[in-house]
Amino acid sequence: MRDFNEHTITQAVVDRFAETPDPRLKAVLTSLVRHLHDFVRDVDLTFEEWQAGIAFLTRTGQTCDQHRQEFILLSDTLGVSMLVDAINHRMPEGATETTVLGPFYVEEAPERPNGADIAGPLEGTPLLVTGSVASADGRPLAGATVDVWHADDDGSYDVQQLDALGGLAGRARFRTDAQGRFHFWTVMPAWYPIPADGPVGEMLNATSRHPNRPAHVHFMIAAPGHETLITHVFASDSPWLESDAVFGVKTSLIADFAEHPAGPAPDGRAMERPFRHLSYDFGLKAA
Fold first, then answer.
1. Is 68 contained in some domain?
2. pTM, whole model, 2 decimals?
3. Which of 130, 225, 269, 283 is deepest in the core (most CB within 10 A)?
């Protein structure tokens, strides 16, 4: 068959996938082609717009490196990341809700003992984080790994300023004790704009959207026999809770980062200046 037109080309492309050995791959590609062609017809896409779209995606790829994933940022700001998250994490009662991974997760986070201060050279209001990990039915999970990372009090992550910091800071990996508990010290993170100096920023500017995220701490928690939990805990007094640029806020993930005057902290540490305290208990869904 030849001489395809706007009405016949879609089925012709779909037919080319007829011999695809993997049925799931065939289903995904077939649906992608049908929706993509319907989109082009729906908006009556011009040749100049098609070229601009190709250029935008090319720049998005060129912006990615080992510390920045512009395609994830694009997925986040279009709500695709949270849609995929929602489809794949229908949580039972007692399990903590999930949210986006974000572009600043680092696999090689250092493992630290409970009670460690992970702020390193980061400055800001001291923050004590205490928490526990249990199965959705309330059974404490000993030895669970708890990865944490967050922005500093200027809204920047360590990987955005490695030269200035001299290495990673504001991130670590902990293991829960026999009662499923963990705790650590760091500094209070600030709300921040997502990186807006690339193609995603161009899209936000063109659509009059702000790039801001409310203050939060990231958690990735894993335990044998359970699904790995990827989530944030958001500060209840932060701006942008109602208009998070990546649509990641859920009511159950908003918590008080309680303010305390100088004095003894809940973990027994004597604090010479005011500090804040986040206490949050996590539940994991059985695998």
1. no
2. 0.89
3. 283
* Gap between the terminal Cα atoms of the chain: 48
CATH (domain of 280): 2.60.130.10
Q: What is the pLDDT of residues 59-99, one digit of tens each?
A: 999 999 877 889 999 999 999 999 999 999 889 999 999 99
Same domain, 167 and 272: yes
Q: Are 107 and 159 in contact (CB under 8 A)?
A: no
β-pairing verdict for 229-235 and 263-264: unpaired
3-state secondary structure of 212: strand
Give the structural domain span for 253.
Answer: 75-284
> Of 115, 119, 125, 258, which is closest to residue 188 (Cα–Cα)?
125
Question: Does residue 231 lie in a domain region?
Answer: yes
Distance between CA atoms of 216 and 178, rounded to whole angstroms? 27
Q: Identify the CA nearest to 148 among candidates 92, 215, 219.
A: 219
Are the CB atoms for 211 and 73 separated by under 8 Å? no
Dmax over CA atoms of the chain, in Å, equals 80
Joined tokens for residue 215: 């203050």
Gap between the Cα atoms of 137 and 274, Å rounded: 36
